[in-house]
Specification:
alpha+beta; elongated; 4-stranded antiparallel β-sheet
């Protein structure tokens, strides 16, 4: 490649690095726009784990039901204005349990009062519609047949209060009118069409509220929940259903609270440890590998800026484990540079020019760099697939870091080295490209 073109690319990469660094710096200082998202272990808050009872859900629909559950809980949390809440579905590790458990992880940054956190999630009504049958061997004892129609298909709920004026819409009871979405509308129509003359019971949190007889097929997608409600009960019920009726029952399995002061202390120590470690690595690179070490240090700063920019843009929730993944991948980025520099040194000792030594060093180092990073990526994918939330955070930051380390080592470092290598073939330049105690 022409030397002027190489130097132009080097300038472009350097300017891009400055721009990325400026963006990251402004993001940490500005009160507006995107910023870093920190996990509870770094800023404090409440961590709640709920177990979902999916025994009554068809196995093929479990993922959809859990997604609906996550959306419902997330909607409830957002109503309270919690900053950056995290609600995610987690299946227990296949290696840890013989039977996978569907879990819902709720993280509420800044909410350190567990009672407040639990109250915030609340107990949203579980709405179910079941057909009424009779138990085997008995003509009087009723049994209830699952229909698959639950609150997950709910679009809205309207409170209907008594109208004592008579005429159209006359009612002496308070009730709640629920409307289903398109999928629920079709299912409700199918149930009523195929079961005319039978009773369709309406259960709320397992309690029978109403068991009207299906007189005809109902295709409008609207049902009524009645049961001697007071005005206040109807209003509260409709409000809770509008916030979101749970598609499956959930049980609080565990809670954890991290104090804000402890979280910030962990963040402060983690950042300091990372800076000290990376600073020592850069010092070693410059002392041992001279000019290439300085170039690698510049590439490492660009690598860190790119990582942090991606964390802001995705965004990636930064935890203590995530910081560990960042530091580890930084070490892998340095490893790639060291492989290149050692190969370069071998070529220089064989009498090749500095430019040819750079080209050959990068080419010869590519295969071990590729294979080493590939095994790291595969390990991270296994951790992400089988791990829990904390392990997944580590795996994610490690994977991002590995890909960026390959980019900075093969593209950025190589471009900077070639731009400098074309200056001259003087003894001083050759000495600057050697390393350690080498004198020639």
């Amino acid at each position: 490649m022409n030397l002027s073109v190489v130097r132009a690319w080097a300038v472009i990469l350097l300017l891009c690095g400055v721009a990325v660094g400026h963006y990251v710096y402004n993001s940490t200082r500005s009160d507006e726009g995107k910023k870093f998202v920190y996990g509870l272990d770094l800023v404090g808050g409440s961590h709640l784990v709920y177990e979902a009872d999916t025994s009554g859900v068809d196995p093929s629909n479990i993922n959809e039901a859990m997604s609906a559950l996550r959306d419902v809980i997330e909607r409830r949390v957002n109503l309270f204005g919690v900053s950056e809440p995290l609600v995610q579905v987690e299946k227990a590790s296949a290696l840890a349990e013989s039977t996978a458990t569907e879990r819902l992880i709720v993280e509420l940054p800044g909410v350190t009062d567990l009672k407040e956190a639990i109250a915030m999630i609340g107990k949203t009504p579980l709405l179910e519609f079941k057909l009424v049958g009779t138990s085997a061997g008995s003509s009087t004892e009723p049994t209830y047949i699952e229909t698959g129609l639950t609150g997950r298909y709910l679009t809205r709920a309207l409170p209907k209060l008594p109208n004592s004026g008579g005429g159209p819409g006359f009612s002496t009871d308070s009730y709640v009118e629920v409307t289903f979405n398109d999928e629920g509308k079709e299912l409700f129509a199918k149930i009523t069409r195929e079961n005319v003359g039978k009773q369709l019971a309406i259960f709320l949190d397992g309690d029978l509220k109403s068991d009207p007889v299906i007189r005809e097929a109902i295709t409008g997608g609207t049902a009524v929940i009645s049961g001697g409600f007071t005005k206040e009960e109807v209003q509260e019920l409709s409000r809770n259903l509008n916030i979101g009726a749970l598609p499956v029952p959930i049980k609080l399995a565990s809670t954890e609270s991290v104090g804000a002061s402890l979280g910030f202390e962990t963040l402060d120590k983690g950042v300091k440890a990372g800076l000290y470690g990376i600073g020592l690595v850069m010092l070693f690179l410059m002392l041992w590998y001279r000019l290439p070490g300085f170039i690698a240090s510049v590439a490492l700063v660009l690598y860190l800026a790119l990582n942090l920019a991606i964390y802001i843009l995705i965004p990636v929730t930064i935890t203590a484990a995530g910081l560990a993944g960042l530091v580890l991948s930084s070490g892998m980025a340095v490893d790639a540079n060291i492989l290149i520099f050692e190969r370069m040194k071998d070529e220089l000792k064989r009498g090749k020019s500095v430019r040819d030594a750079v080209m050959e060093g990068v080419a010869r180092a590519w295969l071990p760099i590729r294979d080493g990073n590939l095994t790291g990526i595969l390990s991270a994918l296994v951790l992400f697939w089988f791990g829990t939330a904390g392990v997944q955070g580590f795996a994610l930051t490690l994977t991002i870091g590995i890909f960026l380390s390959m980019f900075t080592a093969i593209i950025v470092t190589r471009t900077f080295l070639l731009a400098v290598a074309g200056i001259s073939e003087s003894k001083v330049l050759r000495w600057l490209f050697l390393s350690g105690i080498d004198k020639n």
